[in-house]
Known about the structure:
By secondary structure, the chain is an alpha+beta fold. The chain contains nine helices and twelve strands. The strands form four sheets. A six-stranded antiparallel beta sheet has the order 4-5-8-9-3-10. A two-stranded parallel sheet has the order 1-12. The protein has a two-stranded antiparallel ribbon with strand order 2-11. The longest helix is centred in the C-terminal third of the chain and has 23 residues, at 302-324. The two termini are 29 Å apart.
Amino acid sequence: MVEEEVSSLEEGTVTVIATGPLTSDAMAEFIKNDLGCGNLHFFDAAAPIVDASTINMDVAFFASRYDKGDADYINCTMNKEQYDAFWQALTTAEEAELKEFDKESQKNVKVFEGCMPVEVMAKRGYETLCYGPLKPVGLVDPRVGKESYAVVQLRKENREGTMFNLVGFQTHLTFPEQRRVFRMIPGLENAEFLRYGVMHRNTYLNSPGILDNTYAMNARPDVFFAGQMTGVEGYVESAGSGLLAGINAANRALGKDKLALPAETMLGAMADYVSRGGTGAFAPMNANFGIVTPLGYRVKGGKAAKNEKLAERALSIIDQTLATL
């Protein structure tokens, strides 16, 4: 083991790059320019994502603004009384404490104007949100035949439509506060959050098109990435990406075929997300059942029973894969 800073690597050497969110400037420049990965993302601003099956569609409805294009957005309407309660809760909710490097990042990144936290926007004025992400113009509630006081829109996060994100809801709120306040939105009272909103320093690749589903570079198959740099979010997820990248780096060195796990497994689903992305701009993702290929049939017994079936299917696939190695 050699403990020293690495800022480059030799051509043709099988390598796993597992540098984290605070990558050194020299290594970041090497990844960006020499490896041809382009600009790295230095600030992670992502809105919460909810499980589509937990949205109350007796209250919410699909529609596009002015009925233009496909009705891909789920709309959660508010009357003035509901909006008032939501605004009061949002503007008084507890915010997450920033780390020192996050504070420094915000000095250098125009995050507050380009990607303003929803609670900061709300504090600028009572009706500010109604002219921003909660703008009701052009969205007619089919139940009453008119526009509402405010509308929260949710956009499809993946092609399968199992995950929806709250449009314009980047936030600094703590996770418990996000759950409490955002469940005040009509239709989201029982919403399960697959990912909470985050805003922090997080160096990562724009991985779709750069990495394949084995964490190898498409342009440099001898170079693999692992950990948060790939766009997975969390410790277990980073370890999981490292496991798959390590196996495939070893296979590459030994002249064996790469191992790509199917998206019916969690490791495969994360690798698939990293290599293909969702439906919008690429943002880090944690392990959750929303990114796993759906069963394709209904399961009695609710969410727990469905997740158990997903797990059973995944374990069966892994057993079959191991048997072929």
